[in-house]
């Protein structure tokens, strides 16, 4: 008699390595939070819980490498703006108005959306204050989150409530990271998050780099998203943004920079040489009219590129499916329709994301010994019929609404499309009242 396992995900089409051609009908056995076996055909192992994956694809959980869950309450409230006015007139006043309860409700909304849409891991950017509430929400809801409070100590249009003393800001991050990095059995991790060049002094950027490297934490920031941003940085620093960031130490294999839309040739070479990751956020780049990052060009040059939805006020959804469809189609305009095959895009959204977060040994593929982070995508929707390579069906045909089950570290967090780790009606109520309170404070501050 075979030993009983915690969980069997049964009867699906399994895509264990994502960008390989290999896929088969099989079962996944999970025990103690880890994948113990990927079985071809059906397993007879007894299991304490079985999730049905019939007429579904079983994939490694999706990894998004740039989100702001804390911005989620501002969804549909900041449309029709370019980056700098979007920050100064909408996002910063909103972040300045958030209290602890607002931060936690916003984080819960973002995390609920990510999990129900099949994203099991995210690299997340906080606001300046109350960041412990983001970790508390992530701990409860069950996502794997690499996250950090944002840093700003200068910059035009930054509200006083978000401008921090440089040393105080760094001390806050150190305390947060010391408390949360490795919490929830390693599911939560810290990543230092200076916002972008225009809102950080050189001392702050250098301090962030020093803090992260002294602790072994990742670094995340925004770079070269918008033409006005790039021009303002050149005017202020006398060099290109990437040359400047490289000088202060904010490049390297432990750095994820969101966007990389407007890059000079020397900047691309610098990214490749330093093995700095660019997180492609096509949904946000289109909505803010920022431009289209040259992803095939970056990849050809040897720059690691991963995917992220950015924030709810600039997308307006946090769906990896939306980003995958855009990443697979947008680059046809410049490079032809064969530029971004579905298997490549699917790998960016899983194993490449895991590697960028230094979690490649832990997640990103379905292999025995790895953490059981699994997404099961239903194939019964009309846009997924009647057949085709599973990667093409997922990237070109599926949406977040097709996600059936989601497992993180062996824990089923979404089952039959329902969030298991929170009461959805209570959560909706908390989100609604947090937005009412936050928007009232925004009106008062005007
Ligand atoms: Zn962002």
Topology (SSEs and partners):
Blueprint: E1 5-14, E2 24-31, E3 34-40, E4 47-52, E5 56-60, E6 62-68, H1 83-97, H2 100-116, E7 119-125, H3 132-141, E8 144-148, E9 150-151, H4 166-180, E10 188-194, H5 202-215, E11 218-223, H6 227-237, H7 241-248, E12 255-259, H8 265-274, E13 277-280, H9 282-287, H10 295-301, E14 305-307, E15 310-311, H11 320-329, H12 332-335, H13 342-348, H14 351-356, E16 374-378, H15 390-397, E17 403-408, E18 411-415, E19 418-419, H16 424-445
Parallel strand pairs: 1-4, 1-5, 6-7, 6-15, 7-8, 8-10, 9-10, 10-11, 11-12, 12-13, 13-14
Antiparallel strand pairs: 1-2, 2-3, 5-16, 16-17, 17-18, 18-19
Helix pairs in contact: 1-16, 2-3, 2-16, 4-5, 7-8, 11-15, 13-15
The chain binds zinc ion.
Bound molecules: zinc ion
**Count of helical stretches:** 16
Task: Give the low-pLDDT segments.
Answer: none
What does the largest sheet look like? Answer: 10 strands, parallel
Radius of gyration: 21 Å
Structural class: alpha/beta
- Identify the quaternary structure here: single chain
Helix content: 25-40%
Total strands: 19
Identify the overall geometry.
Answer: globular
Mean pLDDT across every amino acid position: 97
Amino- and carboxy-terminal Cα gap: 69 Å
Proportion of strand residues: 15-25%
Overview of the molecule:
The chain contains 16 helices and 19 strands. With 446 residues, it is an alpha/beta fold. Helix 1 (83-97) packs across helix 16 (424-445) and helix 7 packs parallel to helix 8 (265-274). The mean pLDDT is 97. Strands 6, 7, 8, 9, 10, 11, 12, 13, 14 and 15 form a ten-stranded parallel beta sheet that branches. Strands 1, 2, 3, 4, 5, 16, 17, 18 and 19 form a nine-stranded mixed beta sheet that branches. The longest helix has 22 residues, at 424-445. Zinc ion binds at residues 66, 68, 125, 222, 258, 310-311.
């Amino acid at each position: 008699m075979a030993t009983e396992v915690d969980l069997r995900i049964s009867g699906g089409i399994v895509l264990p390595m994502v960008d390989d051609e290999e896929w088969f009908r099989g079962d996944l056995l999970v025990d103690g939070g880890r994948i113990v076996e990927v079985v071809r055909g059906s397993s007879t192992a007894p299991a304490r819980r079985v999730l049905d994956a019939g007429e579904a694809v079983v994939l490694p959980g999706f990894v998004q490498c740039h989100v702001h869950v804390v911005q989620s309450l501002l969804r549909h409230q900041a449309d029709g703006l370019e980056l700098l006015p979007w920050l100064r007139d909408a996002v910063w006043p909103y972040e300045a108005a958030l209290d602890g309860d607002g931060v936690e409700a916003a984080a819960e909304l973002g995390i609920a959306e990510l999990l129900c849409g099949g994203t099991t891991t995210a690299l997340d950017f906080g606001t300046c204050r109350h960041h412990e509430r983001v970790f508390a929400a992530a701990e409860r809801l069950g996502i794997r989150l690499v996250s950090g409070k944002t840093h700003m100590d200068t910059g035009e249009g930054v509200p006083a409530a978000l401008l921090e003393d440089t040393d105080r800001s760094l001390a806050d991050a150190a305390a947060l990271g010391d408390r949360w990095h490795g919490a929830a059995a390693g599911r939560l991790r810290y990543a230092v998050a200076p916002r972008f060049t225009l809102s950080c002094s050189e001392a702050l950027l250098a301090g962030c780099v020093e803090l992260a490297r002294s602790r072994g934490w990742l670094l995340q920031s925004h770079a070269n998203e918008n033409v006005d941003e790039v021009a303002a940085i050149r005017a202020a620093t006398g060099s290109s943004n990437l040359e400047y960031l490289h000088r202060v130490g904010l490049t390297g294999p432990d750095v994820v920079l969101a966007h990389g839309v407007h890059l000079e040739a020397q900047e691309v070479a610098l990214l490749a040489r330093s093995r700095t990751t660019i997180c492609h956020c096509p949904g946000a780049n289109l909505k803010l009219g920022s431009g289209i990052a040259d992803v095939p060009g970056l990849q050809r040059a040897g720059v690691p590129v991963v995917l992220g939805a950015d924030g709810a006020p600039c997308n307006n959804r946090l769906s990896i499916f939306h980003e995958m469809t855009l990443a697979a189609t947008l680059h046809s305009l410049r490079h032809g329709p064969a530029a971004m095959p579905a298997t490549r895009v699917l790998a960016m959204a899983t194993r490449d994301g895991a590697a960028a977060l230094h979690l490649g040994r832990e997640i990103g593929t379905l292999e025995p010994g790895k953490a059981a982070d699994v997404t099961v995508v239903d194939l019964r929707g009309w846009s997924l019929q009647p057949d085709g390579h599973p990667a093409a069906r997922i990237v070109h045909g599926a949406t977040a609404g097709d996600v059936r089950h989601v497992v993180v570290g062996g824990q089923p967090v979404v089952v039959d499309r329902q969030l298991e780790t929170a009461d959805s009606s209570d959560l909706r109520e908390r989100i609604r009242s947090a937005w009412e309170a936050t928007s009232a404070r925004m009106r008062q501050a005007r």
